[in-house]
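User: My collaborator sent over this chain with a note saying "see what the structure looks like." That's all I know about it. Can you take a look?
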Amino acid sequence: MNRIWVMAVVIIAGIHDPKLTESFLCKLFGDLRRRCQSGNLLIFPTQDYPAYSGLDIFNYLCSVAQTPALSPPPRGGFGQNPVKLPIILICFSAGVVGAIAAAWMWQQAGGEVKAFIALDGWGVPLGGNFPIYRMSHDRFTHRTSALLGAGIESFYADPPVEHLNLWSSPQTAKGWWLHRTSTGVETASPATAKTVLSYWLKTHGESGED
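Assistant: Without extra context I'll predict from the sequence alone. Here is the result:
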């Protein structure tokens, strides 16, 4: 039986040991094997393509996150036009470079970007007609990254954690979640990176660990 997905969560890692990404996904989503088999989790193969290549990521999305659908062509009859799934992008380090370019291309091609979550995308300008969130492994990275687009919410680790540890172990990265309350007041709340990631996913219709 074919799976019917209404949305895809796309993971774009950086240039590092793939085991770190596996750790990140297990911490965030729990039973990763069951999730990949039955859910909507897509992992860009950084072992085969550059993490910073927006075109390669876009082509990957076209191959796995769109499905053919029957629709009437302009002159009558029926033809097949691809339907692009709405996506949530979660990206890290060098993957942020490629992911933001792919997000723009996906949107320009008629797709929807429900959310863009960048972990340690230091030095990468972030902007777009979709919700953007930033996470940083320390306060310096948070402050300097904010100059290039802070996003609607953000998180930074305090005390600082190692760059790769933010990705591999989000449950141990404690820090400050900068967001607005339901009354519109800007606030900083203590949290872990995993807690914040799970909240952002839930906000956009996706759940984290079962």
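A starting point for your reply to your collaborator: The chain has one domain: 8-70+82-203.
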